[in-house]
Amino acid sequence: MSLAIHQDDADILLKQKNILNEDNLEKYRVAGQITQTGLQYLISLINNSYHLKTTAKISVQDLCLLSDSFLFKLLNKQYVNKVIEKGISHPTTINVNELINGFAPEIDDEREFYFKEGDVVTLSLGVQIDGYTSQVSHTIVIYPTENNKPTGPLLGNNADAICACHIAIESVIALLGCSLNPEKLPQNLQSSKITGSLIRNLVDSIADQFNCIVLPGSKIRRIRRFLAGQAEGIVAERDFKGVVWDESHQEIRLLKQGNTTQDLIVSEKPQSTNNSSAVPNDEFFIEPGEVYQIDLKMSGLSNLNEIGIITTDEIDQFSGKNNKQDFNSKSSIFIRDFAITHQLKLKTARKMLGEVDKKFSVYPFKLDYIGNELIDNEKSQQEINEQIAKLKQSMKSNRLGASELINRHLIKSKPIQITKFVPLKEILLTSNPTGKHGIDLSKPVLPGMEIPLPNIGISSIKLKSLLKTGFNISNVRESTTIIINNNNNNEVLRLNGGEQTANINWIHSNYKLNQDLQDTINYLIQLTKDKRFGINLKTINPYKLKQQNASVESMQID
Length: 558
Hints:
The strands form 6 sheets. Strands 7, 8, 9, 10, 17, 18 and 19 form a 7-stranded mixed β-sheet that branches. The two termini are about 45 Å apart. The chain folds into 2 domains: about 5-235 and about 280-300 and about 310-330 and about 470-555, Creatine Amidinohydrolase (Alpha-Beta Complex); about 330-415, Winged helix-like DNA-binding domain superfamily/Winged helix DNA-binding domain (Arc Repressor Mutant, subunit A, Orthogonal Bundle), CATH 1.10.10. By secondary structure, the chain is α+β, with helices and mostly antiparallel strands. The model is unreliable at about 260-275 and about 550-558 (pLDDT under 50). The chain is about 30% helix and about 20% strand. It contains 11 helices and 21 strands. It is found in: Cytoplasm; Nucleus.
């Protein structure tokens, strides 16, 4: 079902409201400052709990709740009675090792999840002010400590992936910034404009040098007001503009590596560019005045002895209920589908739907956001525990109301996903009588990406059946939001991440860049260091915090 919108209204929503005037830029800046502060706060909680050990270990569900409450508190201090909408655009998720998306356990989950030494932990969060969104992801490592210091650097495939992801993020920021001054592009790129193909080639080249794979779901995409990719797979976004990775790009890579005859080599013909298309393609140009989300996920291959495809698998509360004791968990993040209407029976469901429509609009939410007071981070630990206990009691009625909303398809759950490696031999030897004509409608994907392995004729249903032959593989993720601002000073504004809040961990990789690629990346990075003759890159600073244990005692706005 589609929603009818007049062309004049569409022009206002998609064009006029996305002009980077000073008012809109300030909303982006404030959203960026809140995400920077939230990420800094969350990392400090983990460091105090697991590395410095100045507090008791905090569970994953408590970390998610404290982080979200902290974000709401910061939001409540900004634009009071000045904007219609503001809130969390990406609930805090904490994905550990092979978990890649959506893990944010509710506070009433019977199991308590804790980190252990050696875990690779990805923290993701985001906020929006009047629909202008800032989202960030950062991967940290839980180190074994001795005298409050790590005993050594992280080694192996996770270290390779962290290194590749960090270099790729910084390089892409510089590359996108060159759209303000295309004459500063490195000569060996042999391009006068920044295209999607150029971005993909740079990221893939960096990943290859570190023996890593760019995972399905990675994307470098334009974001606009209320359009930040939060409903991908549910709503098709008109005028989509971005580079997206899925399993088919791994397939092309393997075919190119293994074939020497022309009849089997994949032909990558440029697709015709349709500005109104919702189907991603690389035939677009980066233009000043746009906002981009750079979201890269990678896995290292150094520990693998065979070739294959890395894909994602969805888990739920039923996964593992057999002889294989796999991890299982309920989806805890939901999003409203405004194309569906229904007359509800339960009073709790009607009340919940009204609050969802009023508070969260088109953005994801969790059940503990609804009808509850926020956890006050400035209280003592005992008072925080009392607030959490009260919150657990209110979750019972929320779950009852949510069950009817889910059954009537008024809200949809966002899946919890893990990364799995499926050996190529299992894919090639499987019987496939239906060919590629079998689409897994339960898996949210962008339009045009319903068939994961089109060249060898493997459908999403068939690939899903092959997941039992694979095994879990860990992943890392880095994400940041940047504004290519062509007003006055011509600057690139980085809303989140960077050295102040998302420093790279102590790692060591046995791989390094080849000389040509290293020269290109060094040139791009140096441009961001030279504001006069290079790219004027500014990173939003977090609020100043004074923190003790799990409580934030004071907050000062810069």
